[in-house]
């Protein structure tokens, strides 16, 4: 990843930055098991760690991570926190699958990442960008970076982990 692909967010910045992080690869669903209890696979942890380290190496710094309380999202957010993406991690039930994800935006300012699930994060990105629903999908451990300015939200970055990590064999 080229340095400067992401800009450094300062806590006192008047710009609003929103990063949408989809959780990493999780264990398969098991009949009778609660959907919230699916942790990341070893491969999912490795890929997520590599993506978060690449984001930090590229200069991305956030004020806060806000995550779904589901195991796979919480684990992804903890990896991001440990990589130095943000100094604060909060959990928010509204980021659970099917939840009112957009409501979370009203509670935050500055540079924030939401860690959650598809299709919710992709639909939120489409709504903010004025795109038809479903025209933007976020892959597992994928990243969408949006910035709010005078003309509304703009797409600043879209990272597909396979493009970043494919050559590394992760």
UniProtKB/TrEMBL annotation:
It comes from the Bacteria. SMART domains: PGAM. This is Phosphohistidine phosphatase SixA. The lineage of its organism: Bacteria, Bacillati, Cyanobacteriota, Cyanophyceae, Synechococcales.
């Amino acid at each position: 990843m080229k340095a400067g692909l992401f800009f450094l967010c300062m806590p006192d910045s008047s710009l609003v930055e929103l990063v949408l992080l989809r959780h990493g690869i999780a264990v398969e669903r098991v009949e009778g098991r609660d959907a919230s209890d699916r942790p990341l696979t070893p491969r999912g942890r490795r890929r997520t760690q590599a993506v978060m380290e690449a984001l930090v190496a590229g200069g991305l710094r956030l004020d806060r991570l806000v995550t779904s309380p589901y195991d796979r999202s919480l684990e992804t957010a903890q990896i991001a926190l440990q990589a130095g993406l943000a100094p604060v991690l909060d959990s928010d039930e509204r980021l659970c699958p099917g939840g009112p994800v957009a409501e979370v935006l009203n509670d935050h300012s500055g540079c924030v990442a939401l860690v959650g699930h598809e299709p919710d994060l992709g639909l939120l990105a489409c709504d903010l960008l004025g795109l038809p629903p479903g025209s933007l999908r976020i892959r597992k451990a994928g990243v969408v970076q949006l910035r709010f300015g005078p003309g509304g939200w703009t797409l600043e970055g879209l990272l597909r982990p396979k493009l970043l990590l494919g050559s590394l064999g992760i």
